[in-house]
Design brief:
Number of helices: 4
Order of helices and strands: HHHH
Structural class: mainly alpha
Strand content: under 5%
Distance between the termini: 25 Å
Helix content: over 70%
Oligomer: single chain
Largest sheet: none
Shape: globular
Length: about 90
């Protein structure tokens, strides 16, 4: 299903790979610092995704969102709800 997902720019995937490498390197010397870095990444991702989740909910059908995200409809709905901070059951 991921093959049908909307492609991400190479610069973005490269940055993500670099972040993973940096966190893995940090974990070798300071696992807690690596956890803190991963948590910061998680918080930043949630903050960055809030408005796009709301816009996607407004502009796309559940099927379109699922296809674009490379997920099934239920998982896409739950992801968008979590990132948009609304209940997935409404």
């Amino acid at each position: 299903m991921d093959q049908a997902a909307i492609p991400l720019p190479e610069t973005f995937t490269d940055l993500l790979a670099q972040l993973v490498t940096e966190i893995e390197t940090l974990a070798k010397t300071s696992p807690l610092a690596a956890l803190r870095a991963a948590r910061q990444l998680e918080v930043t991702a949630a903050r960055a995704a809030y408005w796009p989740a709301h816009q996607a909910r407004q502009d796309t059908t559940p099927e379109q969102a699922a296809n674009a995200l490379g997920l099934n409809e239920d998982t896409a709905r739950k992801l968008m709800a979590r990132l948009g901070d609304w209940s997935p059951y409404h």
